[in-house]
From TrEMBL:
GO terms for molecular function: metal ion binding; molybdopterin cofactor binding; oxidoreductase activity, acting on a sulfur group of donors, quinone or similar compound as acceptor. Its cofactor is Mo-molybdopterin. Part of the MsrPQ system that repairs oxidized periplasmic proteins containing methionine sulfoxide residues (Met-O), using respiratory chain electrons. Thus protects these proteins from oxidative-stress damage caused by reactive species of oxygen and chlorine generated by the host defense mechanisms. MsrPQ is essential for the maintenance of envelope integrity under bleach stress, rescuing a wide series of structurally unrelated periplasmic proteins from methionine oxidation. Predicted to be exported by the Tat system. The position of the signal peptide cleavage has not been experimentally proven. This is Protein-methionine-sulfoxide reductase catalytic subunit MsrP. Heterodimer of a catalytic subunit (MsrP) and a heme-binding subunit (MsrQ). It comes from Parazoarcus communis SWub3 = DSM 12120.
Length: 314
C-alpha cells in the first residue's frame, strides 16, 4: 500500500526501488547459495533459518495453484505490516516484539452465539489445509505463497450469523508500546468483507506458511487471506471479527477513499489513480506479467459480483 504523505516514495519510483531491493536480495541469495552449494529460492526452504514449529497433518486443496512458489525468504522479509514500519524489511526486523500467546479472537456483533476463541482452540476448529495462493499487492508486485489455514466460514458458522448480518469487519492488534505511534492509518488496522465473500470457500484464515507456524511479520497468530482481492484486504494479527448489517469502514478506505475502495478486487481494467494495475512483477522475477481478473480466480468468484459496476465498486 502507498499513501499520500511527503515522507513516502513517489509512485514513479516504486518499481525501480522494489527492483533494486529485489536484485540486491537475489544477489545476496546467489552469494549464499554459492557458499552453501544449494539453491535457496523457488520453494526450496532456506535451511539456515531458525527452526519454526511445523504444522501437520495438512490436507491439500484443489484451490491451490501449481505455479512456482516465492522463496520463503522473500515471503518473510518483503512485507507490508505498517504497524512495524513502512519499509519492506521493517516487519521482519520489528514484529518479534509482538507476543502471540496468550491470544484471543472475539467473534461478535450480529451473531446468535457470539464467542471469544482462544487461539489454540481456534486452530482446532477445522482441519488445516495447505492453500497455495497468489497474493497480489495493490503496489503491483505479487507472490505465490503456500499458506496453512482453514476456511473462514468454519469459524463464522460456529457463532450463527443472524439474518441481518451482511458484512464482516476484521480488527487487528494494535499496541502503541511496540508498534509505530505515527498515524499512518487509523489504528487499529481494520478491513471488511461482504458476508458472502467471507463465507466463500476460497477465503481462509491463515495460521502458517510453508508448513510452519506463521512468522509474526506475516500476521501471526492468525490473518485473513482473500486471494482474489488486493493484499491489503488480508488483515494481519486479528483480534476481533464483527458481524454488521452495514458496510464497515476500512483503514485504507478511510485514509484515501478515492484510491482504495471497499471491494478492492484485483482488476487489471481499473487502474489505481496513480498507477496502472494491468501488470505486476512477481517477486523473484524481473519481467512483468499481466495481471489477471480477480487475480486468476474469476471462475470461482465472478458470480459474486454479477450486475455490479466494478469501476464504481472498486
Ligand atoms: N494489520 C495489518 N495488516 C495488513 C497490512 C498492514 O499494514 N497491517 N498490510 C496489508 C498489505 S498492504 C498487504 S500487501 C499484505 C501483505 O502480507 P504479507 O506481508 O504476508 O505478504 O498484508 C496486509 N495486511
Ligand atoms: Mo498491499
Amino acid at each position: 500500500m502507498l499513501i499520500k504523505r511527503p515522507a513516502d516514495i513517489p509512485a514513479s519510483e516504486i518499481t525501480p526501488r522494489d527492483l533494486f531491493d529485489d536484485r540486491r536480495r537475489f544477489l545476496q541469495q546467489a552469494g549464499a547459495s554459492l557458499i552453501a552449494g544449494a539453491a535457496l529460492w523457488h520453494g526450496v526452504p532456506d535451511n539456515a533459518r531458525a527452526a519454526a514449529t511445523r504444522l501437520s497433518p495438512l490436507a491439500s486443496s484443489p484451490f491451490s495453484t501449481t505455479e512456482s512458489q516465492t522463496a520463503y525468504k522473500s515471503v518473510t522479509t518483503y512485507n507490508n505490516f505498517y504497524e512495524f514500519g513502512t519499509d519492506k524489511e521493517d516487519p521482519a526486523r520489528n514484529a518479534d516484539k509482538m507476543a502471540v500467546r496468550p491470544w484471543t479472537v472475539r467473534v461478535e456483533g450480529l451473531a446468535g452465539k457470539p464467542r471469544t476463541f482462544d487461539i489454540d482452540d481456534l486452530l482446532k476448529l477445522a482441519p488445516l489445509e495447505e492453500r497455495i495462493y497468489r497474493l497480489r499487492c495493490v503496489e503491483a508486485w505479487s507472490m505465490v505463497v503456500p499458506w496453512v489455514g482453514f476456511p473462514l466460514s468454519a469459524l463464522l458458522k460456529q457463532v450463527d450469523p443472524l439474518g441481518s448480518a451482511k458484512y464482516v469487519e476484521f480488527v487487528t492488534h494494535y499496541d502503541a508500546s511496540i508498534m509505530t505511534r505515527r498515524q499512518i492509518l487509523n489504528w487499529p488496522y481494520t478491513e471488511g468483507l461482504r458476508l458472502d465473500e467471507a463465507m466463500h470457500p476460497l477465503t481462509i484464515l491463515a495460521v502458517g506458511l510453508y508448513g510452519e507456524v506463521l512468522p509474526n511479520q506475516n500476521g501471526a497468530p492468525v490473518r485473513l487471506v482473500v486471494p482474489w482481492k488486493y493484499g491489503f484486504k488480508s488483515a494481519k494479527s486479528i483480534v476481533a471479527i464483527r458481524l454488521h448489517e452495514k458496510q464497515p469502514a476500512t483503514a485504507w478506505n478511510q485514509s484515501a477513499p478515492q484510491e482504495y475502495g471497499f471491494y478492492s478486487n484485483v482488476n487489471p481494467e481499473v487502474d489505481h489513480p496513480r498507477w496502472s494495475q494491468a501488470s505486476e512483477r512477481r517477486i523473484g522475477e524481473l519481467r512483468k506479467r499481466p495481471t489477471l481478473m480477480f487475480n486468476g480466480y474469476a471462475e470461482q468468484v465472478a458470480s459474486l459480483y454479477q450486475g455490479m459496476d466494478l469501476r464504481k465498486h472498486y
